[in-house]
Amino acid sequence: QVQLVESGGGLVQAGDSLRLSCAASGRTFSIYSMDWFRQAPGKDRENVCSITWSTGSTYYTESVKGRFTISRDNAKNTVFLQMNTLKPEDTAVYYCRARMIGTNDCWGQGTQITVSS
C-alpha cells in the first residue's frame, strides 16, 4: 500500500499560477504511474495528467495542454503539478492517484483549487 499526501491548493485569480505536490510513502517501488485527477461540482472525476514513474513519459488532457506541467522527483517520491494561466473552469478538487503494479490504486485526500474570475 502507498500513502499519498497532497499540498498546495487554494484560492487564486484567473491567470495566476499554483503548484501542487503529492508525496508518496510506503510501497513506492510498486508505483507504475502518478496521476492527477480533478472533480468539479456535478461533474465526473477526470484524469488531468499522468507521469510514468520509471520513464517519465507524460499525458495531458487537452484542456490543460500548454498550461499544466507534471513532474516527479523519484528520490523524494513526490510528484508535482505546476498550473499556469489558471481559468475559472479549472476550479475543482484535485486528487493525486498512484497507479500500482499488482495491487489496488491509491488516492490522496484531495485538495481544493478555486479560480476566481
Number of helices: 0
Basic shape: globular
- Give helix % range: under 10%
Q: How much is the average pLDDT?
A: 96
The total count of strands amounts to 11
Order of helices and strands: EEEEEEEEEEE
Main β-sheet description? 7 strands, mixed
Class by helix and strand content? mainly beta
* Backbone CA Rg: 14 Å
The unreliable regions are none
Report the β-strand fraction as a percent range: over 45%
Distance between the termini: 40 Å
Describe the structure.
Strands 2, 4, 5, 6, 9, 10 and 11 form a seven-stranded mixed beta sheet that branches. By secondary structure, the chain is mostly beta strands. The chain has strands spanning 2-7, 10-13, 18-26, 31-39, 46-52, 58-60, 68-73, 78-83, 92-100, 106-107, 111-116. A hairpin with a 5-residue loop joins strand 9 and strand 10 (106-107). The chain contains no helices and eleven strands.
How is this structure best summarized?
The protein is mostly beta strands and 117 residues long. It contains no helices and 11 strands.
Which descriptors would you attach to this protein?
4-stranded antiparallel β-sheet; 7-stranded mixed β-sheet; single chain; mainly beta
Task: Reconstruct the topology from this structure.
Layout: E1 2-7, E2 10-13, E3 18-26, E4 31-39, E5 46-52, E6 58-60, E7 68-73, E8 78-83, E9 92-100, E10 106-107, E11 111-116
Parallel strand pairs: 2-11
Antiparallel strand pairs: 1-3, 3-8, 4-5, 4-9, 5-6, 7-8, 9-10, 9-11
